[in-house]
Amino acid sequence: MLEIAGIDHIVLRTTRIEEMLNFYSKVLGCKVERETPAETGLTQLRAGNALIDLVIVDSRLGKMGGGAPTITENNVDHFCLQLKPIAESEIKSHLLAHGIVSEDFDDRYGAQGFGNSIYIKDPEGNSVELRAQI
To answer: Where exactly are the structural domains of the chain?
Structure first.
């Protein structure tokens, strides 16, 4: 029987690569690990023990996925990023400093059981759940 250890990577197609890179690197702290923009339109960012792959929609790789994402036609429903221990107030302050409005934290069930999390949107309208550890 297979056992899943965690999220390996998620692939997000984008028409707004600079805004997406800014969001995932400057707002959420992911580091660019690998880029093959000329070959495939791919940039891979390290997110803890997983990767977030950003693929430019009109690149060779991006065209394989069809049209561009829109407010109503996104690639994913949402994905959840488990954060290292940090106070919820610090998370909210950090997001607000980057102009990102979020809802209140709510107790939700995830891979680590119940815990507080919030939802935010990236520049392409994908929902990102941030799960706090205290």
So the answer is: 9-131
At the top level of CATH, the class of 9-131 is alpha beta
42 forms bridges with which residues in the sheet?
36, 55
Instruction: Please enumerate, as own/partner, the contacts of 83-88 that have beta carbons within 8 Å and a separation of 24 or more.
Output: 83/130, 83/131, 83/132, 83/133, 84/48, 84/133, 85/133, 85/134, 86/132, 86/133, 86/134, 87/132, 87/134, 88/116, 88/132, 88/134
Q: Is the pLDDT of residue 27 over 70?
A: yes
pLDDT at residue number 25: 96
Q: What pTM value is reported for the model?
A: 0.78
